[in-house]
Amino acid sequence: NKVIVLYRRPAGKPVPGDFKTNIEEIPIADNGEVLLKTRYVSVDPYLRGRMNDTDSYVAPFELDKPLQSGIIAEVIDSKHTQFKIGDMVLGNLSWKEYQVSDGVGLRIIPPDPEYITAYLGVLGMTGLTAYTGLTRIGKPKTGETLVVSGAAGAVGSIVGQIGKILGCRVVGLAGSEEKVELLTSRFHFDVAINYKTEPDLSAALKTACPNGVDIYFDNVGGSISDAVLNQINKYARVPVCGAISLYNDAAPAMGPYIQPVLVKKSALMHGFLVSDFADQFNEATVQLTAWLKAGKLTYHETIVEGFDHIPNAFIGLFEGRNEGKMIVKI
Ligand code: NDP
Predict the structure, then answer these.
(1) Which atom number of ligand 1 is nearest to the Cα of residue 245?
(2) Best mutation site among 120, 128, 220 for ligand 1, i.e. most ligand atoms within 8 A of its Cβ?
(3) Do 259 and 176 sit in the same domain of this protein?
(4) Of 8, 29, 156, 326, whose CB has the highest number of CB atoms within 10 Å?
């Protein structure tokens, strides 16, 4: 039974040596417990924050203890009345091939093979983040211009599509030609810009947003966000979802230095955690499922295979190696 633990706290960008694999006995389910076999592991940028020994909204990971993330697992033995062998469950579980659980926090997911991994993405945490952050804070109106950074990722690709469904002009920023192509061809963005090769991002944004920017859904922070924020309109809304470009900095510069623009434009910049909007999860899930079934919404996944590759897949998030949701299949 392989178990991946945090061996040392990453300094800057995580490297494979920050992780270690231990071998343990496969545990046995006691009364009131289930034995789970890990099937799909979600790797997410926020895990980087939990690898630092600093105060945050979730406790830091402990050294030499298993890492955890959203996992879909199969019940392979059950001494729990609510779960039976063969059930697929979703939970915040450990990076272990096999583990026991008392069932607390586990949710049985419908046995729908077409959608199973979607519960880690569009119908899971990242889809709910996209839906709630955009609708609650972005409050899009028909004809407005929405700019999305990290646009080809798990959250960004859903934000952009919802923006289109709700009648916005949608402009996406992403870091490769393949991603830019994916944004316009598959996700129906009006314009996509490769921020890595575009020599003048501000000029490209100006061309892409002739009526300015009404909503900026920020996944990355840093200089990309500065370029967008300089072009916001009066009463713009800025859902601050994440800042991946800063997560590996030891001491990120304290900003934003964009206050004069926010004042001048009477703009709202609003950081959020998806859990802030738990009251909307049912509505969001019903709506996202309906759009998926109607073919109005689609999703993309980068599937890495093999338990040993979980750390590498996680590191890949900081190198832009994923299109859509990054998932490890065991
Ligand atoms: P993604 O699927 O978007 O994966 C990360 C992507 O970020 C990479 O593919 C890469 O794309 C981009 N990236 C990596 N490094 C940089 C950099 N230095 N500058 C700019 N872009 C970079 O991840 P998620 O969709 O899961 O998460 C997106 C953001 O949303 C993250 O900041 C995350 O922390 C946040 N988040 C917040 C939640 C909340 O509750 N507030 C919940 C879930 C996510 P590219 O090739 O385009 O550079």
Answers:
(1) 18
(2) 220
(3) yes
(4) 156
DSSP string covering 172-236, please?
EEESSHHHHHHHHHTS--SEEEETTT-S-HHHHHHHH-TT-EEEEEBSS-HHHHHHHHTTEEEEE
Q: How many domains does the chain have?
A: 2
pLDDT beneath 70, residues of the chain: 255-256
ipTM of predicted assembly, 2 dp: 0.99
- Using a 6 Å CB cutoff, which residues line ligand 1? 44-46, 125-126, 129, 150, 152-156, 174-176, 179, 219-220, 224, 241-245, 272-274, 317-318, 320, 322, 326
194 falls within a domain: yes
Residues 98 and 229 both lie in one domain? no
Is 318 contained in some domain?
Answer: yes
- In this structure, the answer to whether residues 165 and 49 fall within a common structural domain is no
pLDDT for 255: 67
Among 244, 245, 303, 319, say which to mutate for ligand 1: greatest number of ligand atoms within 8 Å of CB. 244
Give 266-320 pLDDT, tens digit per residue: 999 999 999 999 999 999 999 999 999 999 999 999 999 999 999 999 999 999 9
Q: Please give the residue range of the domain that contains residue 176.
A: 125-276
Q: Are residues 185 and 172 in the same domain?
A: yes
Q: Quote the pLDDT of residue 113.
A: 74
95 plus 154 within the same structural domain: no
Alpha carbon nearest to ligand 1 atom 10, residue: 320
CATH of the domain at 81: 3.90.180.10
pLDDT tens per residue across span 137-173: 999 999 999 999 999 999 999 999 999 999 999 999 9
Residue at 179 is within a domain? yes
Segment holding 291, helix H or strand E: helix 281-293
Residues 134 and 95 in one domain: no
